[in-house]
Design brief:
The complex is a heterodimer of chains A (784) and B (159).
Chain A: H1 19-23, E1 38-44, E2 50-56, H2 58-62, E3 66-70, E4 82-83, E5 89-95, H3 98-106, E6 109-114, H4 121-125, E7 139-141, E8 145-151, E9 158-164, E10 167-169, H5 172-178, E11 181-194, E12 202-208, E13 211-216, H6 221-232, E14 239-242, H7 265-277, E15 281-284, H8 287-293, E16 296-307, E17 313-325, E18 351-360, H9 374-392, H10 396-403, E19 410-411, E20 422-424, H11 429-440, H12 442-445, E21 456-468, E22 477-484, E23 490-493, H13 503-515, E24 522-525, H14 543-570, E25 577-580, E26 583-586, E27 589-595, H15 596-600, E28 612-619, E29 635-636, E30 638-650, E31 656-666, H16 673-680, H17 684-690, E32 722-728, H18 751-763, H19 774-780
Parallel strand pairs in A: 1-15, 8-10, 13-14, 17-18, 20-29, 23-24, 31-32
Antiparallel strand pairs in A: 1-5, 2-4, 2-6, 3-5, 7-18, 8-9, 10-18, 11-16, 12-13, 12-15, 16-17, 19-20, 21-30, 22-23, 22-28, 25-26, 26-27, 30-31
Helix pairs in contact in A: 9-18, 13-14, 17-18
Chain B: E1 4-10, E2 13-19, H1 25-32, E3 51-54, E4 57-60, E5 73-75, H2 88-95, H3 105-118, H4 124-130, H5 141-158
Parallel strand pairs in B: 1-5
Antiparallel strand pairs in B: 1-2, 3-4, 3-5
Classes of the chains: A alpha+beta (784), B alpha+beta (159).
């Protein structure tokens, strides 16, 4: 590993692709207007369950300006006859303009054969309810749960795993029998809520000269392109995927066109239509459609924890029933375990049982976004820990300090999916707790609920978190390319998506630091698949960590090649040389220097070294993630930290006000402190779900989403919630070239528990169902 | 088709347009004038992505009918760096990392400009009130406030 100059990292240089974002020149997919472009609009089902009995499209087809009407009959790859949720798409009209397409939609007559539907998680759990998918139960055990055993006394790693109907280790019965104090919380309900995005999903496509160009928003262009080519019957080389800007996503826009249960149908509709008509087609969802199709999440949990008298957490039993709607992503449920004795509380936990279930309902699709199941687990466990602290008579901060994961503790959850268990690479949760407690004046301000009187009551709450950070398991790949030029400038060529999380900036910082040239000298080629090498999907908060390795190693590859050119000219070995501020010099004699231009040698129109190209294909695990180079002893990085909430409850109205959230998070090294801060500010999404009553409300009879807009489904404004980001740096995480870990989704994990704990501290009632609406608070106070 | 001919004054240029009476200003700016810096995110005036300045006021162009805008002086984000140099708000937006995904930036910057056109040195509270109708889903408000304050300072130094 190189000696860090810290010239391009640990600072906040100007945003790399910010210029077009602030001038209005950035072309989001919806800003693409192609000559002769047609517009697609959709007909959506008014019923939640059943099938199309009759569909009449003749009038729409006859409408002047309509070029194509699509249904399950002519495009079975994009539509189906069965209906599984209200709002499922049943037909599309492609026309010369949006108004004509809308009119065409109104002329399509559909008759449905309606069947009883399952419209809530509770109904899904009821064995008497109808089946969402005929012949299949609504409640499923997550298929990949393992019992871990044969724990090595020295390494603490498990050596054996066997498929089971729960995930865990030890013997929970024995653990509870031996426990001094047992705490149990049930009925912990995380409301079905939506991934937010400014730009609603959609695409514009054009098929010309046997080549498909797809303008859309993507977290992983190469991955989506390959899938889409397969579904549309094209070769991968025929497709260029264009997504320079995303318009926010938070995981909720990940598109898998080959998976019908993933809400990426705009890609299928525009794709089939543009190939059939040989004209550009635009399929853009309205806000109402985005509210319907954006990924949801929600679950029901129960937690039981056993402690020794001194507060040592020895045993945990955890149940999570994750609603996936009508066949959404079933993998999300695995991440709920992150908050349990398998990871966050792995330090002392000897007995663990996590029962993971996913539940079908006739509601819009659910999948993981911003936290991917982890927020649901944290909501349950961190409320139970608050309850435990009270029962044990220990300060909630201290109880967590006793039990949270440390560097070198074992991760026995799902992040190490392809291993049996792994080591946690770093964890400064105690330092985060101290920093947050000091900032909020925890000891001074936090009085027990019993001591509070009056109408307005202040409460303080805390919750800690750990979130997966970067898919370290075997088989994950990504790549990057770096070109270096004779004037000591460079171009990073990378498909890594910048959703707003700052990856364009941070990856250029990594390249600059590795090359030893100023950040301003590094440009970026990005935005489509034809001009960039494969890059993995931006998910699991993996940009800085996972893609960071690819960028770093590609830059190091280019750097080595530059030094190989310089060394013979200076009569030394390449290892004797270093680069700083774009100048090559001898390590032992820094006065002896050489420019890149001198190293590259003479240039002419026929040849010379006009550029040096570095490339790296990153396959996990990187050798730096192996403890002492042992491939069976892997380090796993985590996002981790502590969140504190202070608020005031109005006991007359049930309203919550004066909300202040502190997010203290250990990021290893903050490569760009301003970008890191920006990620922490995302805790406001928790405020949406805690206070602004962001919950998908469906009509109890039809299953239609009632609050499908931003007036009734509110998001945090600039007036609503104070956030205090505290960056805790402990450089030295062995799994990253610069000792950084990750930051992104972590801040979304503990917020709802921290709110619930703060409300408990204010009014002495434990709120176990989100959102914490005034009517629920009044009911809890016995005032409804 | 029931189109009307109107003249819209956008970024100091007059445009003669044939528009449907139900077309919104945002729609006409984007679809007819190719000024796609103005974004539409909610279509209900709930997010401010479509904010433009009309006769000195920051307004949601998705709620305004184009046929009613004749005679008004309308400015979009494209007017700010028309001379090739970034406006101080755009400079500070970059320095403070005020645009994460960037989709709110056009509307947010125009909202801030309407404020700074009237007030030299607005307080944090004034900035919050002025931008209370502009959502940033990345919830990057603290950076946005810093960018507006710094831009006010830069404008003050220039004056």
């Amino acid at each position: 590993m190189m000696n860090l100059k810290l010239s391009a990292i640990s600072c906040s240089p100007r945003q790399k692709t910010g210029f077009p974002r602030v001038t209005g020149e950035a072309k989001y997919y919806s800003d693409v207007y192609l000559p002769g472009m047609l517009h697609a609009r959709l007909v959506r089902s008014p019923i939640s369950m059943g099938e199309i009995f009759r569909i009449e499209t003749g009038q729409a087809e006859a409408l002047p300006g309509v070029e194509l009407v699509m249904t399950y009959k002519n495009f079975p790859g994009a539509f189906r006859k069965d209906i599984h949720y209200a709002g499922e798409h049943v037909a599309a009209v492609v026309a010369v303009d949006e108004d004509t397409a809308e009119k065409g939609c109104s002329l399509i007559q559909v008759e449905y054969e309606e069947r009883p539907a399952v419209l809530s998680l509770e109904e899904g759990l009821d064995p008497e309810s109808p089946q969402v998918f005929a012949g299949e139960p609504n409640v499923h055990n997550w298929e990949f749960q393992y019992y871990l055993s044969e724990r090595d006394p020295e390494s603490r790693l498990f050596k054996r795993k066997e498929l089971n109907d729960f995930h865990g280790f030890g013997d929970v019965q024995k653990g509870f029998a031996e426990a001094d104090v047992i705490v149990e919380e049930t009925g912990l309900k995380y409301a079905y809520c939506k991934s937010p995005a400014m730009n609603p999903r959609g695409c514009v496509m054009s098929f010309r000269d046997d080549k498909l160009t797809v303008y859309t928003h993507s977290q992983g262009m190469h991955h989506e392109k390959t899938m889409l080519a397969g579904v549309l019957g094209l070769t991968v080389s025929q497709v260029n995927y264009v997504s320079p800007f995303v318009g926010s996503s938070f995981g909720g826009k990940i598109a898998e066109p080959e998976n019908f249960n993933n809400p990426a149908h705009y890609l299928l509709i525009a794709g089939f239509a543009t190939i059939a008509l040989k004209k550009p087609v635009r399929s853009v969802y309205t806000r109402e459609e985005e509210m319907l199709c954006g990924w949801s999440r929600g679950s029901l949990s129960a937690v039981k924890i056993g402690f020794k008298k001194d507060g040592t957490l020895t045993t945990m039993d955890f149940d999570n029933w994750m609603e996936v709607g009508s066949g959404g992503d079933k993998w999300t449920v695995k991440n709920s375990l992150l908050a349990t004795g398998t990871a966050l509380y792995s330090r002392n936990c000897e007995h663990m049982r996590g029962k993971l279930r996913y539940v079908y309902t006739n509601r819009f699709l659910s999948s993981g976004w911003q936290g991917y199941g982890s927020p649901e687990g944290h909501f349950a466990v961190e409320i139970a820990m608050d309850s435990a602290a009270e029962k044990l008579g220990i300060d909630p901060v201290d109880l967590r300090k006793m039990n949270h994961m440390r560097a070198g503790d074992v991760d026995a959850g799902y992040d190490p999916l392809s291993y049996i268990s792994c080591y946690i690479s770093s964890s400064a949760i105690s330092e985060c707790l101290d920093a947050g407690a000091e900032r909020i004046q925890w000891k001074k301000r936090r009085l027990p609920p019993g001591q509070k009187t009056g109408r307005f009551r202040e409460g303080l709450g805390v919750a800690i978190f750990c979130m997966g950070a970067g898919r370290p398991g075997e088989g994950n790949t990504t790549s990057a390319m770096v070109k270096v030029f004779p004037d000591a400038t460079a171009k990073l060529i990378s498909a890594q998506a910048d959703l707003g999380q700052g990856q364009h900036t941070v990856q250029c910082q990594i390249a600059a630091e590795a090359l030893g040239i100023p950040y301003k000298n590094v440009g970026l080629t990005f935005g489509d698949t034809e001009s960039t090498p494969w890059s993995s999907i931006v998910a699991s908060s993996c940009g800085t960590w996972f893609q960071g390795w690819a960028t770093y190693e590609a830059a190091m590859d280019a750097r080595r090649k530059v030094l190989d050119l310089a060394a013979p000219k200076l009569g030394v070995a390449p290892d004797d040389l270093d680069i700083e501020d774009g100048v090559i010099f001898l390590k032992d004699c820094p006065e002896k220097t050489m420019t890149f231009e001198q190293a590259f040698g003479p240039l002419n129109i026929y040849g010379g070294y006009h550029e040096v190209v570095g490339y790296y294909y990153h396959q996990t695990p990187h050798e730096k993630c192996m403890k002492d180079g042992k491939p069976d002893q892997i380090y796993i990085p985590k996002e981790k930290g502590a969140q504190f909430v202070s608020l005031v409850v109005d006991t007359e109205t049930g309203m919550i006000d004066n909300v202040h959230v502190i997010n203290a998070q250990d990021v290893g090294r903050a490569l760009n402190p301003k970008v890191v801060e920006g990620q922490f500010l995302n805790v406001r999404h928790g405020f949406d779900h805690a206070v602004l009553a962001s919950d998908c409300i469906v009509d109890a009879k039809s299953g239609r989403l009632l609050n499908n807009n931003w007036i009734e489904y509110r998001h945090c404004s600039i007036m609503d919630c104070e956030v205090d980001p505290i960056i805790v740096e402990q450089p030295g995480d062995p799994t990253h070239p610069f000792g950084a870990t990750a930051c992104g989704e972590g801040a979304a994990c503990p917020t709802l528990a921290a709110f619930s704990n703060a409300i408990y501290n204010a009014i002495g009632v434990r709120m176990k169902e989100t959102p914490f609406t005034p009517d629920r608070i009044l009911e809890a106070l016995g005032k409804s | 088709m029931n189109r009307k001919t109107i003249t819209l004054t956008v970024n100091d240029r007059d445009h003669e347009l044939r528009v449907e009476p139900q077309w919104t200003l945002a729609q006409v700016l984007r679809d007819e004038l190719n000024l796609t810096g103005t974004k539409v995110a909610c279509g209900q005036g709930a997010c401010g992505s479509c904010t433009v300045i009309a006769d000195g006021l920051a307004v949601p162009s998705c709620l305004m009918l184009a046929v009613e805008q004749e005679g008004r002086k309308i400015y979009t984000v494209e007017s700010l760096a028309a001379d090739g140099n970034l406006h101080p708000l755009q400079e500070t937006w970059l320095e403070e990392y005020a645009a994460q995904c960037g989709f709110c930036a056009s509307g947010m910057i125009m909202g801030a400009k309407a404020l700074l056109d009237k007030e030299d040195d607005p307080s944090v509270d004034r900035i919050k009130r002025a931008l209370s109708g502009n959502l940033c889903i990345c919830s990057n408000y603290d950076h946005i406030i810093a960018a507006v304050q710094n831009a006010a300072r830069k404008l003050g130094e220039r004056a």
